[in-house]
Amino acid sequence: MTTRGRTALTSHGTHADAFSLLDWTMLGGIALIWGSSFVFMAIGLDAFEPGVVTLARLVLGAGALALVPAARRPIDRLDRARVVALGIIWMAIPLSLFPIAQQWIDSSVAGMINGAVPITAALWATLLMRRLPPRRQLIGIAIGFVGMVAIFLPELSDSSATALGTGLIVVAVILYGLSNNMAVPLQQRYGAAPVLLRAQLVAMVVVAPIGLFELRDSSWAWDSALAMVPLGVLGTGLALVLMTNLVGRVGSTRGSVAIYFVPVVAIILGVIVRDEK
């Protein structure tokens, strides 16, 4: 996991066996929270500009993590650059791209495209560790992705997706795959909370200028403001802790399979709450 005191870029999970009850519980929590996050983003965008939504969720997420004593554990100087990188490629950029993209695509479509994270995570794992994942994992990922596309393709064809909006989500998904790999050894060494708190503080600094600038073009609506609370506290706080712990336990490729269940929640809530067709 470490080389000359520096944490490795990625590593295998600590639990290679079948998912335990704890793993399945974390997976279910991730799917429910992140699946609903797309709807909360859409509600927030009714009144707030994308940069405001991103900044609000980071402030609330970091604020929630700061209340956890374990989040204040120190991180070695050699690993701080890695945490800064995570703050940029796991949070600042993707969390900015999603609300921008959802100006042109439905929340259900964004959730479906996000389901490709296990594919990008497996590809990054192959590149970083210079070896293919076990055949069983590759087959499972491929079957899951094909099944997900087959089920939700009608939603994509009937939605107001655009090439630009779709492309932005694809970029975010590629970065998520890399981030899931980078988070594994850091979680194993420090735990999830210390890494995530510092990464979110970095992301806040990066997105703050845009978020504050876009405040002037935003309006106020209570439903949009209230939607930021679960989006930040749960989506940017709790769910990231669950995901970081899950990939640390079972590895980035297996842990990213949790994302396959996110589109199910996103599409159901998109239809019920936002009347998306």
Sketch the major β-sheet: 2 strands, antiparallel
Number of helical segments?
11
- In total, how many beta strands? 2
| Shape call | globular
Unreliably modeled segments: none
Tell me the number of structural domains: 1
* H/E element order: EEHHHHHHHHHHH
Give the end-to-end Cα distance, rounded to a whole number of Å: 46 Å
Average pLDDT rating? 83
Strand percentage lies at under 5%
What's the gyration radius in Å? 18 Å
Helix content: over 70%
Order of adjacent strands in the largest pleated sheet: 1-2
Structural class: mainly alpha
Write the layout of secondary structure elements.
Layout: E1 2-3, E2 6-7, H1 21-45, H2 50-66, H3 77-101, H4 107-114, H5 117-129, H6 135-157, H7 163-190, H8 192-214, H9 222-250, H10 252-255, H11 262-274
Antiparallel strand pairs: 1-2
Describe the protein in words.
The chain has 277 residues and is mostly helical. The chain has one domain. The chain is built from eleven helices and two strands; from the N terminus they run E-E-H-H-H-H-H-H-H-H-H-H-H. It has helices at 21-45, 50-66, 77-101, 107-114, 117-129, 135-157, 163-190, 192-214, 222-250, 252-255, 262-274; strands at 2-3, 6-7. A two-stranded antiparallel sheet has the order 1-2. A hairpin with a 2-residue loop joins strand 1 and strand 2 (6-7). Helix 2 (50-66) packs antiparallel against helix 8, helix 5 (117-129) packs across helix 7 (163-190) and helix 7 (163-190) runs antiparallel to helix 8 (192-214). The longest helix is centred in the last third of the chain and has 29 residues, at 222-250. The radius of gyration is 18 Å and the shape is globular. The model has no long low-confidence stretch (mean pLDDT 83).
